[in-house]
Amino acid sequence: MTPSPKILIVGGVAGGASAATRARRMNEQARIIMLEKDAYVSFANCGLPYHLGGVIQDRAKLLVAKPEMFKKRFNIEVRVRHEALAIDRTTKTVRIRDHQAGTEYTESYDKLILAPGAAPLLPDVPGVRAPGVHTLRNIEDMDRILSQLPSVQKVAVVGAGFIGLEVAEQLKERGLSVTLIERGGQVLPPLDAEMAEPLRRELLRHGVELISGTGFTAIRETNGKASGVVLEDGRVVAADLIVLGLGVRPYNQLAVNAGLAVGPAGGILTDEYQRTADLDIYAVGDAAEYRLGTTGLRGRVPLAGIANRTGRLVGEHAATGQSATAPAAWGTAIIKVFGLGAGIAGDSLKSALKRGIHARAVHITANHHAGYYPGAKSFTLKLVYEAGTGRILGAQAVGAAGIDKRLDVVASFLHFGGTVRDLAQVDLAYAPPFGSAKDPLHMAAFAAINDLEGSAPLLAPD
Q1: Least C-beta-crowded within 10 Å: which of 70, 232, 239, 281?
Q2: Which pLDDT belongs to residue 139?
Q3: Are residues 253 and 108 in the same domain?
Q4: Residue 223 is part of a domain; what is its CATH number?
Q5: Are residues 273 and 315 in the same domain?
Q6: Among residues 26, 39, 46, 64, which one is catalytic?
Q7: Given phi > 0 = left and psi -120 to 50 = alpha, else beta, which region is 311?
Q8: pTM
Q9: In sequence order, what DSSP letters do the residues of 185-199 get, joined into one string?
Q10: Active site residue 46
């Protein structure tokens, strides 16, 4: 490859920004241009709900880096309000619209990195685009919600996944009346039902009205703006403001129109270096597909961590022609809901069984550090493993403290293919303020080994 490649990046948030800065660090001669169709690059999209709730009071703290910083520190040219419209793979050019100037132009590339992200899912129901109906994906979305809040008393949040729960919590903390609507039978659907149950109780304890087991068929409009959510069972949930948290769909049309393949879930198909079928075009972030650790297949993982890590690898490969291969994605995720945290790494029991794996699971309820040391708080850990081999498949945890480090340990074992026997002997840091001599992870591994050896029966959780 040329020693001074021209690298064009479409998308300037997690994956795109990480690719740009790594490319610069690895190649001082490369010309790097990053396009972003919105007004902001490299912002903390995971922090948006917490500015809504006032936990993060300074809006500027969400703006991790500005175009001027990219230019001054990294000599990277950032063009905001510039949207990539079409790729010509034959001439290696991209047609671009400058929304500020209202003009179009073409830009050539040696290497092209697609990091356009994803868009919130909007169901095809009446009223879904009415004033007062919002999604939360970027700074502009957040600003629109904030501008309406002074006149809002009742909020309906549709979808009890990660974003829906965070928004419901934060708007309730602002003193608003909040109704959370979830079509499935539980909140936080990736978790097994009994692990999500404490979150349901926590929501109710803090005054969030929860409606589960029914979807919605329309948004009711009054005087030209949204005034409620019409449920499948005919009920209407009155609301001054409605936030939809129904998942995301990848921005893949640019790739599809260029003849690049996408997978069943719509993510751009890539190889082990995140290259598309055109080896001069890469894809990362929410629009791309990754190798899934749970299945070994390619799939979408719309999470910030994997986008940033693979963006770094892609930037290096585009700048130098070599890099490590992209690791498997395990979907490790965590959330705070009022006084509880909950999270998952790898498979739940239901997802493992659905794929035909002979999976087993143990539950451990324990204190997050030594019980005799002041301030000990209880949490529950569920460890999922393969019958016979003891290979760790995943874990879930829910409780008031200590769940993050246990999930991170399990995520490490997933990455390296560890077993419950390995986990039983891992040497963890211990002092009474931080843990127990036999950590809850050890206890879960001991119970799993007993199950595998048939020396003790499994007990179902209460």
Answers
A1: 232
A2: 97
A3: yes
A4: 3.50.50.60
A5: yes
A6: 46
A7: alpha
A8: 0.95
A9: SSSSTTS-HHHHHHH
A10: yes
